[in-house]
Amino acid sequence: MLFQTSSSIIRPLIFKNSFFILNRLKFSTTSYTKSNINVAPAPQGIPHYLTHADLSAKEIYNLLASAIQHKYNVKYLNKSSGAPLAGKTLAVMFSKRSTRTRVATESSVTYLGGHPMFLGSQDIQLGVNESLLDTSKVVSSMVDGIMARVGSHSDIETLARYSTVPVINALSDKYHPTQILADLMTLHETYGPQPSSPSSYVAHQTHPSQTLPGLRVAWIGDGNNILHSMMVTFPKLGIGLNVATPKGYEPNEEIIKHAQSEAKSSQTHLMFSSDPREAIKDADVIVTDTWISMGQEEEKVQRIKDFAGFQITSQLAKEGGAKSDWKFLHCLPRKQEEVSDEVFYSPRSLVFQEAENRKWTILAVIDALMVKKSFD
């Protein structure tokens, strides 16, 4: 009887307290995500790296030249950086898991003498328990730079809008600029002058603006953030781009228009198709990526069906008419349905060289924003 009496007393209290807590939570959630107050953005003039659409061809080439020089200095001269970031902290805010980008970022900051502060999804929840605006203002007041890997591209734009320190896009659903820098650096090393021995390096002796224009790249895959970054980068650098995506998986229409405008201005080749063979015609480089990005796992069965015929194989390259010395790129991680082992592990494949170059290009971006404070 005593237990029953206690329960009858406790249950209403639990219900009332639960009702109170739920209402408090509802109120709190609303306050985090919605605000009618206009908050002034951070002062203008702070350099950010969100998309290559914001940069000129010269600024992109400057980043590439810097990355190439860093690689030569560190790997071949064993040269010290002089620790220009001593006492400085880069907040590495990743809401999505990462291998190459995280390792490249942390090792680069360490080389420059700074401290990389990793804040994963278990440490900081962007826009969940605190608005992005508030997070940006708070975190940027305590660190010297922010590198963020987010979902929506609008998240990285909000962080940059209110941050008082440089913000670097480590990946968003719309763009992945650091990946494209590594691709470009790898192509420069491949199509520029070659060293006389594996132990020497000559890429720094030639500017990438002399080796990259005139190349033709074929993208065979999804209309995703990697392709978007190629589309806003390659035309302004004079690199031809052929795109083949399955029907229904085309790139963003706004970005298509931007790329077409850039291609027209630079008189650079640009074409879109749903036929991989058509896109591969005369390609120097064939590129693909994952068919199933993070957050699309439930679409796996349908996507594999829709991407039938898009696997990169030697036979596909031959049927499409790629150049005899064509090369292959993939940003990793890779699945076998995307590219055959025959291609992926062949001398044509530049994937592991490109993966290493993620470090040197990210190092160049951090150096530009946190040390030089400029892309010039």
Automatic annotation (TrEMBL):
Membrane-spanning ranges: none
Keywords noted in UniProt: Amino-acid biosynthesis, Arginine biosynthesis, Transferase
Signal peptide per UniProt: none
Pfam families (UniProt xref): OTCace, OTCace_N
Example GO BP: L-arginine biosynthetic process via ornithine
GO MF term set: amino acid binding; ornithine carbamoyltransferase activity
One Gene Ontology cellular component annotation held by this UniProt entry: mitochondrion
Record-given protein name: ornithine carbamoyltransferase
Lineage: Eukaryota, Fungi, Fungi incertae sedis, Mucoromycota, Glomeromycotina
